[in-house]
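Researcher: Here's my situation. A collaborator sent me these components and asked whether they could plausibly form a single complex. I don't have experimental data yet, so a predicted model of the whole assembly would be a useful starting point for our discussion.
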Amino acid sequence: MLLRSRVIVVMLVVLATLLSVRQPAHAIPAFARKYGLPCSACHEAWPKLNDFGIAFRDRGYQLGNEKDAPIWQNPGYWPVTIRTTPQWHRESSSNQVIDTVPGNPALGQTFHNVTTDGFDFSGLDLWAAGTLYKNISFSVLPSSDSSGSFHFENVFVRFDNLLGNRWVNVKFGKFELDNLVSEKRMLFLSQNGGFYHIYHYLPFRETQFQALNPAIAQFSPVFGIGDNQVGLELSGHSENSYTRYSLAVLSSSGGNPGVPNRIYDGWASFNQGFQVGKLGVQRVGAFAYFGQRATFFNTSLGTPVLGEGLGNKSFYRAGLTSLIYVKKLDFSTVFIHGWDNAFLGTGTAANTALPVGARAPTWNGAFLETHFTYSPQLIFVQRNEIVRMSRQVFSTDPRDLGDVDAYSFGLRYYPFMSSRAGLAVHTEYSLLRSYKSASPLPTSTSPFGPDLRTSSVFIGLDFAF
Amino acid sequence: MKHRPMAAQLVGIAILLLAAVGQSSFAQETHIDALTGEVHRGKQLYRRYCVGCHGPTGDGRGENAPWIDPKPRDFVTATFKCRSTPSGELPTDEDLFKSVTRGFVNSNMPSWLPLTEQQRADLVAFVKTFSSRFHDEKPAAPVQIPVEPTADHASIQRGTELYQKMNCWSCHGKGGRGDGPSAQTLVDNKGYPIAPYDFAAWTRFKCGESNQDLYRILMTGLDGTPMPSLASSLKPDQAWDLVHYLRALQTNAKHKQPAAQGEHERSSESKSVGEKPEARANRF
């Protein structure tokens, strides 16, 4: 029982860490300064791209007017952007196991709602991006958490219009998987709402395994579509970027550096836009990610040898996306289906037998995100998101174990429009329900706890320069 | 804390619906083929995409204008380079639509092709509200473009003679590199330095890429620039001869002076003070 409690505590710590390290969103005033266009030219409401912004990005961050190369810029121009978000936020979690008498665990535990609030600040994005030469662009994004610990969110060089053809573009390095609905450009920032759950979802049992085996998790990291990956991408687009594709070969490192484990994953996405009268451009797309992960490692004196992963087992994610515009209203939808090999689902080394009754877990997830762009300076947002397990690892597990319901709404107000910098007043409220994911009481005979419900209130000043 | 996800969802949806209500509109339209551009929608798009350069009153004095070379178009004067109509006349709606769609090479004006046709038509409708000329006048009939004759050696030879006779070389230079003796003295209608087109650059022209586009430029001129209309000086066949010669000049200049695209001209903003005026100039 004590072990189970520890596992769940570790899981919560991992989850909290994941949630608190908000993915940096992409908005680059350095480009606005370079071209003299306001943020709203490329962003519906930054960081979310509009049709022009999508085309600009697809052209390799170029307008295509023969003035894109750095030679056209003032030599003093330096394409660097900073972004951070001072904030006030409130976090609440239900069904937390608390000692009945503080400081005296021997007297028993009880469930309690834990609520915190206060002033805070996000990490810092320090982003350099631009063109090195005509049709050669780059991006380097060191990003820190709020403690100042940096990692590289992206690092890539991109070659565009190879062979004089806009359908042949190559990107090399660490980058966001090209998907119609980008988590990096979402309009939510809170701990509960600031990421797409379905882009990072793992079954409950698998999350337990990751928490219990941090060494394996480090060398054979979990995968999330929302995480930038390291590899090589071939992409292309039509002149107006209504038709787009992306194919990528990626290291199975989960985007982490220094994990050369000799396994490669694959990514494919395609999306198509249609002009529908006065409604705007409607886009639909599909994506798939096929990957493998090692289930055990050669060891040296018991310590896993980096890069010597063995017993690879596969997984995939596949889905459908759409961006639907109805004048000032737009809807982003994503449906995703996930499948993990039973060895991954149970955290079992492939050189040992699977637990009796273990099956490959499968699940489905979806969200509907709605934006009402009242003006380029004011946007209302909301998102409904669900994840439903369609097959648990063990048939004896509760059918809804690890299911997720999430809901967020808020607004962003941009007090000014400028081609030099951006500021957004951001408010948001988010709810999350994770079925049977809370820790059980130590005295409980059930291995599963009650539902875990968390909520976030977020008020911040999101600025980029 | 008690959680009420359903209630929260209803509140969120209600806010969105309330915000969607009450979007008023008024009719003021522009027609481009089957498209009807509407001013009120164009105004919103202008605010989003254009106001930073062209300014809230359309006078080309947006907050970013001081840093742009060439300067943004002043819509109030309704003087447009790219027209299908004779010099001095208003452009047609389609002319403006094409300009928005195509953008202008060697300027900060990008192609707005990623916007829907409807959105571009709406923008045209709004841009026209900046000048009373669009209210008081009607665009003249577009210049007719006859069928292009064969671009044979004789046509190019005649074009060569016309290039000399019409003094094109005084601005564009004998080799077509925009380095004629008058090139350094040229200014646009706002007094800003402006440079002649450099055929060696091999970029598309301001107002299109095809031979028909080049013919149209010759016959309509580029209003607001020193490039005049040659309609009163050239017969249609002569204009085609000149087009053929300019195309040959473009090819020859390219081959004689190879340069990496994007680096054949240095940035005007990268020039130091005291350099020649043409270095800061727009090209027409």
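Model: Some features of this prediction you could bring to your collaborator: Chain A has a mean pLDDT of 90. Chain A touches chain B through 61 residues (CB under 8 Å).
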